[in-house]
């Protein structure tokens, strides 16, 4: 099994990613660390626990982390996720407790305690917690096995500005630190997540599972990212964050290219842009596996089959 820390800002698609991880015996979730992003921190920390309880996994440790980006003011996305961050279905408030430890301290402690090269970080939101941990404890950087993250847009452009994808845009300084860390990074950008569309038939397949989890996932995907038909067509909306977890389980679903990715942190026009050096015209070494394509059918087969186990 692969040990992972899921760093997240749920978010309906974060919620589906968490459920996919919970359903997958290949993965051992050491903890779920929450960050401000789609909605403020109190809500993301609450939503992560709602999701664990929905799956009956109240033993999972959930931590609250940074409540705002490193330098910039927090930008949220209620227009995508609704007021609660998990709009689409109303679920009971969590009974399970939030851990008292700060998410950043948990990340640092875990990387120091686990054998080097055995922990994979899975960021599904702004990179604030991760970069803050690296700043506070530079010794942990070389202990990370790999980072598999959702963020960025390359040929696809941005979804919050013409140039930037939300997770990178919210905390470009943090993203810059992570992409310069030297850790091997796998990037699931909009180029991939816009190819795994939640069509009617796929949502029905979730609902037909006939379980509370299937019902919740159908309700979320019915709500989430459906606000803009012109953008994604009439039958489907993207499903971002589960791509990260699907990659850990079935990497062959994805194909990409090893390149250098740098983050724009200065220009207001292109703030948070993921700049790819496709043709090795800079002295910067490749630091990231950019994923550009996905077997969407295989992805939904995996996701639906796993969710059926919960
Ligand atoms: C990313 O931003 C959030 O709205 C989603 O949860 C996803 O992580 C997509 O740009
Ligand atoms: Ca997210």
From TrEMBL:
KW Protein transport (keyword) present: no
Annotated GO biological process: purine nucleoside catabolic process
Record's keyword terms, sorted: Glycosidase, Hydrolase
Organism domain of life: Bacteria
GO cellular component, one term: cytosol
InterPro entries assigned to the protein according to its UniProt record, in alphabetical order: I/U_nuclsd_hydro_CS, Inosine/uridine_hydrolase_dom, IUNH, Ribo_hydro-like
GO molecular function: purine nucleosidase activity; uridine nucleosidase activity
Residues in Inosine/uridine-preferring nucleoside hydrolase domain copies: 4-300
Keyword Hydrolase: yes
This protein's name: Purine nucleosidase
Biological source species: Rhodobacter aestuarii
């Amino acid at each position: 099994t692969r040990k992972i820390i899921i760093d997240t800002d749920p978010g309906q698609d974060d919620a589906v990613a968490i459920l996919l991880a919970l359903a997958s015996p290949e993965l051992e979730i050491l903890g779920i660390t929450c960050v401000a992003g789609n909605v403020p921190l109190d809500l993301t920390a609450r939503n992560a626990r709602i999701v664990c309880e929905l799956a009956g996994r109240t033993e999972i440790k959930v931590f609250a982390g940074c409540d705002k980006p490193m330098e910039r003011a927090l930008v949220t996305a209620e227009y995508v996720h609704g007021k609660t961050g998990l709009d689409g279905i109303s679920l009971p408030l969590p009974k399970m407790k939030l851990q008292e430890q700060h998410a950043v301290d948990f990340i640092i402690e875990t990387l120091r305690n686990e054998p080097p090269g055995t922990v994979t970080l899975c960021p599904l939101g702004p990179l604030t917690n991760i970069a803050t941990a690296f700043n506070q404890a530079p010794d942990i950087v070389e202990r990370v096995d790999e980072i598999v993250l959702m963020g960025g847009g390359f040929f696809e452009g941005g979804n919050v500005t013409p140039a930037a994808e939300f997770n990178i845009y919210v905390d470009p300084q943090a993203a810059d630190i992570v992409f310069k860390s030297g850790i091997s990074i796998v990037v699931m950008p909009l180029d991939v997540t816009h190819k795994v569309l939640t069509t009617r038939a796929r949502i029905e397949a979730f609902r037909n599972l006939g379980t509370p989890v299937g019902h919740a996932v159908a309700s979320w995907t019915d709500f989430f990212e459906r606000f803009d038909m012109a953008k994604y067509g009439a039958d489907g909306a993207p499903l971002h964050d589960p791509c990260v977890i699907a990659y850990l389980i079935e990497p062959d679903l994805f194909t990409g290219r090893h390149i250098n990715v740098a983050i724009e942190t200065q220009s207001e026009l292109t703030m948070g842009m993921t700049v790819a050096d496709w043709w090795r015209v800079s002295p910067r070494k490749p630091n990231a596996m950019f994923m550009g394509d996905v077997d969407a059918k295989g992805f939904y087969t995996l996701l639906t089959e796993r969710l059926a186990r919960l």
